[in-house]
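Onboarding guide, step 5: your first structure request.
Type a short instruction followed by the sequence, for example:

Predict the 3D structure of this protein.
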Amino acid sequence: MREKQARKGPSAAPLQHRLREMLRAQAEALQDNAIRSGGQVSSEQLESLQRLVALVEIGDRAQPKPSRDRLSLIVAVAATLLILSILLFERRDSTEIELEAEVDQLSFVVPAQELFSESLNVSALGASGLSRIQLPRAYNQEARTLTSPQSSALDVVLAATTDSKAQGEMNLPDLVLPGKTHLWLQKTTLPRQYRLTLEGTALDLRANVSGTVQVSLAGGTSQQLTFVSPKPVIFESGQRSVNLDLTLSSLPHTISAMPMRIEDFSLLRVEDRQGPGGAPVRLVSTILSGSIFFDELNGEELKLRPREAIHLEHAEGEISFLQLKDDRMAVQFHGRVRGMRTGSIETGRSLMPTWLEWLKARRGLYLFWGACIYVLGLIAGFLRWLKGV
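The system replies with structure tokens like these:
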């Protein structure tokens, strides 16, 4: 115990320093004597000097290691744990994905003017949320314009008749969406019917009609109009969103105006089930099946369960494929997301790749760093060899 205290005492370092000074003085004195005597050195003096050298070496070995070595070790271990923690648990801010899924609803925003669909044949068309409807001149009626009251919007249903000699036909011409238009597309419960909801400004909506068409307005007014030649029915949107209920003539139908640049891509819908106690609004998944492929992880696939809630944050990219089927839609999306979670927003699990997964997928990076370490090792060995020469 006393030895440990003596080593740790404040006099250990000065004593060792005094021994070194004594060794230096005796070595210089012995060298002077050797020069004066023509190289003659007594064995007693040489042995005394060697014993003093040995004593200094023993003192050096007995000295405790500097505290900075222990501190350096602690810093190195802490830095290693910090780096490993970042690699294992820290997730990337953004990642590139490809999503292939079958859904019953999707929504997105077009950042700039885009062509959503080319000419689309429909057997019935319902439109709601309109401020004005321009009906063209028909065989049995002059052209007229219907305007909505200030307190409500216009709703209309156009249906092509099949029990007349002048069989009705309808189609939607190219649907061009202005920039910043928010679009929702969902499958309804009726056969071959999809609801297209548009929220934006300066929407150019029209339908080309020919033959006999049943026109039904909200409030019970209904009549058949016969158009000898194709004529456009023009819809003007109000301040609120516009709903178009499209009953397609045949399915499946592939939307041909693809790819299309989009942002804020979402596969969630707002469900408001008001019960006796007023149930709160909640987000429900629209996914029926599908997969997510991580481009930065060499195409690693994540299978999606039916109705699995996937929250995509700031999803920007393009829809490369969109097909309408009898009871669902098939969609392919490729783009970059700045966040992705599964489950609820509060307690969900992040699906963003960790830095370790990202590094693991980059084998070329491993080769680069391995080569750098090898070259640095060669340089360090060469410099050490030069010092020893």
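Each response can be followed by summary notes, for example: The CA atoms of residues 74 and 80 lie 10 Å apart.
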